[in-house]
Amino acid sequence: MSEGTRLICRILDSIRDDYILVVNQERRIVYVNTPFLEHFGYRREEIVGKLCHEMSRPFHEPCTAAQGQCPLDKTLSLGKPQTTILTRIWHGQRLSYEAMFYPLQDEGLVGPMVVGVFRDITTKRQLEQELRHRHEFESRLIRISIDGIIANDRQGNILIYNEGAQKILGYRPDEVIGKLNVAQLYPPGLAREIKKKIYSEDYGGPGKLENFETVLKGKDEILVPVWLSACLIYEDDQEVGVVGFFRDISERKRMEEKLLQNERLATVGKMAAHIGHEIKNPLMLIGGFARQVQRSASLDEKDQRKLQIIQEETERLERFLTDLGSFTRVSAPHKKPGEIIAIIHDVAEMMEPSFKEQEVEFSLQQPSEVPIFSFDSGQLRQVFLNLFKNALEAMPTGGELRVQVETVDHDLHLIVADTGQGIPPQVQKELFNPFFTTKDKGTGLGLAISRQIIEQHQGDITIESEVRRGTRCIIRLPME
Ligand code: ADP
Ligand code: MG
User: 116: which residues sit within 8 A by CB, 6+ positions away?
Assistant: First the structure.
């Protein structure tokens, strides 16, 4: 061996982590470096001079030479480097190698050869796999969290948007990621305010916002009240974005609202009962005396008219007190099994003269069979009376009053629809408030009473309306 060759061999031996093998065009091994021998457990004379596939194979896979897929052959025929991953089992452990084959053109002495370099990448692969698993696990955590999670970069571009967020806001991830700016998920101006709070010290420390009550804007402009926590994300001390976690609190808000409403009602109710009691007797006296005076005295027409008005107005006040009484006294329902359809017929029959007079056409649509279930017939009669009266009052020049009864699972749906003047959107949320009325002589108690009754039957009542088109009152009653 010449000095030069020895030097080259020494150099190749010093590359400790690369196991090097050189074969000629017959696939005969002409050289291996010492790290190769040490790593795979061969002595040099055992393999040098042997055909590559005769070497008791260090790798686990069957030799692909026979199938014409030998990377050595490929390297030789194409004259281009080839890379492949090989594995072997060693003491029960699976080891992975990256194998690179380089063509070596030496036309002069020995003809074309291939240099194979093997590198153990087992640890690298394990790390990669671990990272991948961890990444998948974390992604899954984010995905399935019931809290909404949204992360955005410094410009506000949304990068992460999980299932929770989709449930709360209604957008699908593909409508949001890379498409919307996070500021578009807030009502105008709010995003900037929130950002200021995150930077400030006062909401859980600088760079953090904890359990802050705010609103987000979802699909179709719906506003969702949420509890929001957020924090800045740093990478190498550089601020790269913000992640926000939020929880829908609309149900909670509704409950709070309702509690407050009930409390208010209870107070109003007590006061009303007291006032009603104080007023009722003098009112009856006033009305009675007016009637007496009107009958006895020979009054001129003007005074007659005044007495008439006194009577009418006292009657109206008495009716108001009766309404008020039924409102403050909506007691626990006395439920008995009955036929709801019969109740509707009763009320319709009672109001028949008014329907006729106002040219309102009444119709009832019902399924072939409505189950008998328990309810307080007096109270439900009152509900239909209130709703029919409202419908009539909304159709002074005639129209249609349609009642539709449907059974949906264990619920009964009762829809009272009119073709009247409708309700402008801005007052729709006031309708059930006691004393809310748009009528000169209204009490504003009809719907408040109806809702109380329906809720005492574990149901709910909602109203949909369109101005000049009509109104639909939808009652849902569970039939236990
Ligand atoms: P009142 O009838 O005494 O005004 P209600 O509680 O029955 O009180 O109704 C409250 C208000 O709701 C009414 O004043 C009216 O503005 C509106 N409303 C209720 N039902 C209808 C309806 N069918 N069509 C139009 N407006 C309605
Ligand atoms: Mg009414």
Answer: 20, 21, 22, 23, 72, 99, 100, 101
Compute the distance between CA of residue 408 and CA of residue 370 in angstroms, rounded to an integer: 11
Which ligand 1 atom is the nearest neighbour of the CA of 438? 14
CB 438 less than 6 A from any atom of ligand 1? yes
Say if ligand 1 is within 6 A of residue 200 CB.
no
- On the question of pLDDT at 415 being above 90, the answer is yes
Residue 435: CB within 6 Å of ligand 1?
A: no
Ligand 1 centre distance from Cα of residue 198 (Å): 46
**How many Cβ atoms from other residues are within 10 Å of residue 348's Cβ?**
17
User: Which among 322, 335, 219, 327 has a CA at the least distance from the CA of 279?
Assistant: 322
Q: pLDDT (tens digit, 9 = 90+) per residue, 340-367?
A: 999 999 999 999 999 999 999 999 999 9
Residue partners of 341: CB distance under 8 A and separation at least 6: 364, 366, 370, 405
Radius of gyration of the chain (CA): 43
Query: Is the Cβ atom of 453 under 6 angstroms away from ligand 1?
Result: no
Please, which residues have CB within 8 angstroms of residue 309's CB and are 6 or more apart in sequence?
none
Rounded Cα gap, residues 331 and 212, in angstroms:
40
Provide the strand spans (E) within 112-222. 113-120, 148-153, 158-161, 208-217
| 325 C-alpha to ligand 1 centroid (Å) | 19
